[in-house]
Amino acid sequence: MNAPADRAEDPAAEAWRWARFMLSGDRPAGAFGFELVAAGPGAAELAMTVPPVALNAFGTCHGGVLFTLADAALSIACNSRGQQSVAQTCSIAFLRPVQPGDRLIARASERARTARTAIYDCAVVNGATGKVVAEFRGHSRTIADHMPIGPAT
């Protein structure tokens, strides 16, 4: 068990440890090739290159894959302090089509936080153009003050 007393003193190092742990157990993230770019308290950045399996019938990236990328970034950001948190509600607005082979970057950041609830925004950006392709907002709920399992230190 990872009680608060077991946590690292350095919040940035702790966030990286939890980020690696969360991503390693996220099967859709593995299937789509999500990569951890950055992590910090209340923040995460993931990247992916759109594979052929992620395309819809129109030959562009499926909206569900964009949602999954943003949701994975939310998951890492909201669990970055070692408290077990889950998504409570999420929404996404798709702004531009994404082509096969496009490099996407999802940047999640905490906007507001109370004892058990937090709000995160996540912009999904085309890495080549810098243009936002989707905007995601997620509300998380902390369900335990510590994780039931956790990363090796």
TrEMBL record:
<protein>
    <submittedName>
        <fullName>Phenylacetic acid degradation protein PaaD</fullName>
    </submittedName>
</protein>
<dbReference type="InterPro" id="IPR006683">
    <property type="entry name" value="Thioestr_dom"/>
</dbReference>
<dbReference type="InterPro" id="IPR029069">
    <property type="entry name" value="HotDog_dom_sf"/>
</dbReference>
<dbReference type="InterPro" id="IPR011973">
    <property type="entry name" value="PaaD"/>
</dbReference>
<feature type="domain" description="Thioesterase">
    <location>
        <begin position="58"/>
        <end position="131"/>
    </location>
</feature>
<keyword id="KW-0378">Hydrolase</keyword>
<dbReference type="InterPro" id="IPR003736">
    <property type="entry name" value="PAAI_dom"/>
</dbReference>
<dbReference type="GO" id="GO:0016289">
    <property type="term" value="F:acyl-CoA hydrolase activity"/>
</dbReference>
<dbReference type="InterPro" id="IPR052723">
    <property type="entry name" value="Acyl-CoA_thioesterase_PaaI"/>
</dbReference>
<keyword id="KW-0614">Plasmid</keyword>
<dbReference type="Pfam" id="PF03061">
    <property type="entry name" value="4HBT"/>
</dbReference>
<comment type="similarity">
    <text>Belongs to the thioesterase PaaI family.</text>
</comment>
